[in-house]
Every structure is written in structure tokens, then in C-alpha cells.
Write a structure and sequence with these properties.
This protein has 6 helices and 3 strands; from the N terminus they run H-E-E-E-H-H-H-H-H. The radius of gyration is 14 Å and the shape is globular. The chain has a single domain, classed as Alpha-Beta Complex (Sufe protein. Chain: A). The protein is an alpha+beta fold and about 140 residues long. The chain has a 3-stranded antiparallel sheet with strand order 1-2-3. It starts with 6 loop residues before the first helix and ends in a 13-residue tail after the last helix. Strand 2 and strand 3 form a beta hairpin. Helix 2 packs across helix 4 and helix 2 crosses helix 5. It binds FE2/S2 (inorganic) cluster.
């Protein structure tokens, strides 16, 4: 497996950051992949418009774990606006790449962060649609196996 994955991917896969739950989270986003059955759950804590804490739980492949770990590190302490701009492409680049057939696993991380932020806005009584945009349909496959 190691020859297909960068050292950074292997490092985040074997030692993922920010794994767990936030019991009193301000927003929770869950995105699933109907095709492979992988599920990503992202918890955020927001303070003064910034991501004060973020944790994730995933029942997914190694690429999903590595991209989520890296994504949480990339949005920690950032403003909500900055966190919303995080793309799966930026996460893949930060990990020094992924095999082509695993690129789409990184979408779980990006979309679950957006879903958690959408949930945060909904809890504030704000319609998240104009701010967060369209999220992946949790019941539709978003990656190839
Ligand atoms: Fe399903 Fe990677 S997220 S195979």
C-alpha cells in the first residue's frame, strides 16, 4: 500500500489528528457514500466566528481518514468563511497527492465540514443555503471504489 501513498498520507492515516466527538458541538455534519458505505461525521465548535475546535469520526477508507485529519488541521482556528473555502483539492495538495481513484474520498472531508457549518447556521436560525451552497447528497455515491 505504501508505494501508492505519500508519506504524509501514511502519517495522517496511521496517526490521525482531531479524532473524536465534541459533545456540545455548535455544528455537526454527516456525509455518507452510498456506494462504498463510508461515512464521515464532523463536529465543530465556533467562537467569535472562528473554528475553535473540530473533531471527526469516520467509518471509511484510509484516504478518507487521512484527508479528514489534514482538513481538520487546516481549518482549526480559521474563520468560518476561510473554513468554507477549503477545497478537497487543497487538502489533497497538502497531503502531497492521492492516487487518482482515491481523489474523491477527499470530498467526504470537504463536504462534511460544509455540512457542519450549514448545521451551525441552521442552529443560529440562519438559512445556510446562500452561504454554504449545495452540499453533496448524502444518499448518492460521491466516489468511485
Ligand atoms: Fe469510500 Fe474512500 S471514501 S472508498
Amino acid at each position: 500500500m505504501a508505494q501508492f501513498y505519500s508519506d504524509k498520507v501514511m502519517e495522517h492515516f496511521t496517526n490521525p489528528r482531531n479524532v473524536g466527538e465534541i459533545p456540545d458541538a455548535d455544528g455537526i455534519g454527516e456525509i455518507g457514500n452510498a456506494k462504498c458505505g463510508d461515512i464521515m461525521k464532523m463536529y465543530i465548535k465556533v467562537k467569535d466566528g472562528r473554528i475553535d475546535d473540530v473533531k471527526f469520526k469516520t467509518y471509511g477508507c484510509g484516504s478518507a481518514i487521512a484527508t479528514s485529519s489534514m482538513a481538520t488541521e487546516m481549518i482549526m482556528g480559521k474563520t468560518i468563511e476561510e473554513a468554507l473555502q477549503l477545497s478537497n483539492k487543497a487538502v489533497v495538495e497538502a497531503l502531497d497527492g492521492l492516487p487518482v481513484n482515491k481523489i474523491h474520498c477527499s470530498v467526504l472531508a470537504e463536504q462534511s465540514i460544509k455540512a457542519a457549518i450549514a448545521d451551525y447556521y441552521t442552529r443560529q436560525g440562519i438559512d445556510p443555503a446562500p452561504i454554504v451552497g449545495k452540499l453533496a447528497d448524502p444518499h448518492q455515491p460521491i466516489c468511485e471504489l
